[in-house]
Design a protein that fits this description.
- The chain is mainly α.
- It has helices at residues 29-32, 37-56, 60-65, 71-99, 101-120, 125-153, 159-184, 191-210, 219-224, 230-234, 237-259, 261-267, 272-300, 303-321, 327-356, 363-390, 396-415, 426-445, 449-458, 468-477, 482-486.
- The longest helix has 30 residues, at 327-356.
- Helix 11 runs parallel beside helix 14 and helix 14 (303-321) runs antiparallel to helix 15.
- The chain is built from 21 helices and no strands.
Length: 487
């Protein structure tokens, strides 16, 4: 009927579901937001970097042994990369705060590219050791700066989804890399290093040109951003919990999984080296499966539930590995452990991003978070190995049990922390959104002459010659809920 406001299709008293940002039609805002172009560039670069790393990882010990060194010396080549990453992480964080994320990211990639190419021309073991160690310095530079870029660019509503997409790209690259690396090794053990160096040069060029004309190129703005200190971050229970879970995840997923799980398959189950390698692929498959949903769940349900669930699933699977008596059960548990890792990783990274925020620089805070994972990855295999070799009652079962208990303790730390996911107040949405829509509806209907006459009668015999603008202004002031908005 002309003159009456149209009935709203959506109730003005709609209550948003907990943990989700309201949007038109009840669709969470995080589900509607697209990942920014700059982050998509970083995700593509991460895929290229991971493929390149996978090219050299399988053949690196063999290449080291080509210089007539033993197993221990070849293992040192692998550890040197992780050690320099750990040691140089604080300096990398300071560089990010002083120069900005983009230049540090690109320089870090170039350092790894040059050091990797130099490895291909190493004349002896010691040259290879030095060049590989230099690569760890570049690695920590682009890793910390990449985390800083994601923190700075990702909208808070989709931080979990962004972290999941970045982790997925890296995981897929690390799966495909060894396959290609094995084929390239047929042309010589030095060839994969050269291909990896070329891939890094391509990635650095793409990031440089694609992000050149964005706000990320403004170094002055990067220097002017207030820095979040490590002391301030540690005062936040969410950051303390993230450090605990990062250490436990580094111990379990990057340390014990890589060093002991393949040995367990070969030495205890007698499955041979093929099953040992397949076990790592099954673990990665479980992680990839979980990453398809964990990022979105971290943005809707919260960071804490996903991290706690992931830690408990991973820990329970690691404990059960020690009791697996056949290959089928062993591989199934590898998938379950990978699912746990895939659940927790995007959520804990998003939690750190929540603590830092997009309006502050957190280079050293992010570097400390990375160090906790690297420290766990270095310490875990060493202590687990000592449990197996040095304790009279030591065994793989005990080492895996200790790993599972450690992840459970990290989950306990998260139960005592705050939820870092930013949430919009339901009260704010209830006041503003219906009022705005109702005001628009009244303004639209007010264009008819009948409505003008009815509105005049409502004003109790106001002057007939009042113009439409005065009437519109008066009626807008009388709209329901307007006084609440003003207050």
């Amino acid at each position: 009927m002309a003159g009456f406001p149209r009935v709203l299709k959506r109730s003005p008293f709609r209550i948003p579901r907990p943990g989700r940002r309201g949007g038109p039609g009840g669709v969470p805002a995080g589900d509607r937001q697209r990942i920014p172009r700059e982050i998509r560039v970083l995700i593509a670069a991460a895929f290229v970097i991971a493929i390149g790393f996978g090219l050299v990882a399988p053949i690196l010990p063999q290449f080291a042994q080509s210089f007539d060194v033993g197993v221990t010396a070849s293992a040192v080549i692998v550890s040197a990369f992780a050690f320099t990453r750990l040691v140089f992480a604080p300096a990398g964080g300071r560089l990010v705060e002083r120069l900005g994320e983009r230049p540090v990211y690109i320089v870090g990639l170039l350092i790894v590219a040059l050091s990797t190419a130099a490895c291909a021309f190493a004349a002896d073991y010691w040259q290879l050791l030095v060049f590989r160690a230099l690569g760890g310095i570049g690695s920590t530079m682009f890793t910390v700066s990449a985390m800083g870029l994601i923190v700075r660019l990702a909208p808070p509503a989709i931080r979990g989804r962004v972290s999941g997409a970045y982790a997925t790209a890296f995981l897929l690259g690390s799966i495909g890399g060894p396959l290609v690396g094995g084929l390239l090794a047929r042309f010589g053990l030095r060839v994969p290093f050269l291909v990896y160096a070329a891939a890094l040069l391509v990635a650095s060029a793409v990031v440089f040109f694609q992000l050149k004309d964005t706000s990320l190129a403004d170094r002055a703005a990067a220097r002017d951003k207030p820095a979040l200190t490590v002391r301030e971050a540690v005062a936040d229970s969410g950051y303390r919990a993230a450090l605990a879970s990062s250490f436990a995840n580094g111990w379990s997923s990057f340390g014990v999984r890589m060093a002991l799980v393949p040995l367990f398959a070969d030495a205890v189950l007698g499955a041979g080296t093929e099953i040992a390698g397949i076990s790592l692929a099954f673990f990665a498959a479980g992680t990839a499966l979980a990453l398809t949903v964990s990022g979105g769940l971290a943005d809707s349900l919260g960071r804490r539930p996903l991290v706690i669930t992931g830690l408990l699933v991973n820990g329970a699977a690691m404990i059960a590995l020690g009791f697996s008596g056949n290959v089928v059960v062993f591989l199934a548990l590898c998938v379950v452990a990978g699912i746990g890792t895939g659940l927790l990783n995007p959520a804990q990274q998003a939690a750190v991003a929540d603590v830092v925020g997009s309006d502050r620089s957190g280079g050293r805070v992010l570097a400390t978070f990375q160090m906790s994972s690297d420290f766990g990855a270095i310490l875990g295999p060493i202590l687990a190995g000592l449990i197996i070799d040095r304790l009279s009652f030591g065994s793989f079962t005990l080492a895996f049990t200790v790993t599972g208990v450690l992840t459970a303790l990290a989950a306990g730390v998260w139960t005592l922390s705050r939820e870092t996911l930013p949430r919009e107040s339901p009260r704010t949405e209830l006041q503003t959104e219906p009022t705005t829509e109702l005001t628009t509806e009244l303004t639209t209907e007010r264009t008819s002459p009948d409505d003008d006459g009815m509105a005049g009668r409502r004003r109790g015999g106001a002057a007939a010659d009042s113009n439409d603008d005065d009437g519109t202004a008066e009626r807008r002031g009388a709209g329901p809920g307007t006084e609440e908005q003003r207050s």
